[in-house]
């Protein structure tokens, strides 16, 4: 249990990191993009955020709050695998962050392996105009799985659910930077590459080349890819070609198009 | 890589509401005007930072 005052601070940190980072990146992208901006940039951003809003309402409302009662159990210390060890709070926080990141890595890898999960995840990968808003482009059903896995992992470990809010305050800005249409300085990439998934590493993952797409699955930490041999170093000269070859047409990127992709794209064997 | 941990967002909203006895039901709280002002300020700082970054990179 932590002081409720700190939960409020966490909420401000969470929203502040989200809004501040996005405002920072979208302004930077507009002035000096790494590759050409989309012809209708704000429509693209609006569609991605529209899908995001629907996914949040469904995933948080139905699964997070309805199924897991996250709001009521946020500050509770569940009885889990780590409970018998009697770890101090700081150790539980670290275990929770590393544990959920490993679960995220595993789920992400499964998304690329299992056909029905890939059909959901392809909504995220079909974006051929990568920018900070791509980070929030996720099919609602995939986000439902995501919320269930994260809340389930923390509960199983015996870690309070607010730890996910703390992790998110760092991870969400990182996720937006990973997708941003910005050439970050090389020293930034070199400094963080060994521990964090940097934008250059993640751009490799969004390549239409299946060999590259099926690599660099890390969410926050890049060492999972090194440990499990899925690491692919960034190209010295980035190709700046993204998306999925069979989902390039505009109809796949409208709001209903993205929502129905898992059904409409079922017949396409190689996306 | 996906934008993750969304579940925590509304959970934090609801938890704060419950703690403040505003309403014991989850998912009923909205950020106060103070919160919105703070988030808007943070957003403005972000825009200013992005503006500086894009001018430096040109």
What does this 3D model show about the protein?
The complex is a heterodimer of chains A (271) and B (58). Chain A has 271 residues and is an all-alpha fold. Chain A contains twelve helices and no strands. In chain A, helix 4 (89-113) packs antiparallel against helix 6 and helix 5 packs antiparallel against helix 12. The radius of gyration of chain A is 18 Å and the shape is globular. In chain A, 44% of the residues are buried. Chain B has helices at 7-19, 33-57. The model of chain B is unreliable at 15-29 (pLDDT under 50). Chains A and B meet through helix 1, helix 2, helix 3, helix 6 and helix 7 of A and helix 1 and helix 2 of B.
Please provide a brief summary of the model:
The complex is a heterodimer of chains A (271) and B (58). Chain A is an all-alpha fold and 271 residues long.
| N-end to C-end Cα span of chain A | 46 Å
Low-pLDDT parts of chain A are none
Element pattern of chain B in H and E: HH
Mean pLDDT of chain A: 89
Range of strand content of chain A? under 5%
How many alpha or pi helices of chain A?
A: 12
**Helix/strand/pairing category of chain A:** mainly alpha
Report on the biggest sheet of chain B.
none
Radius of gyration of chain A: 18 Å
Our Rg estimate of chain B from Cα atoms comes to 16 Å
Number of strands of chain B: 0
Oligomeric state of the chains?
heterodimer
Query: Any idea what the shape of chain B is?
Result: rod-shaped
- The portion of residues forming beta strands of chain B comes to under 5%
Count of DSSP H/I helices of chain B: 2
Greatest interface and its participating residue counts: A-B, 72 and 38 residues
Query: Low-confidence stretches of chain B at least 5 residues in length (pLDDT < 50)?
Result: 15-29
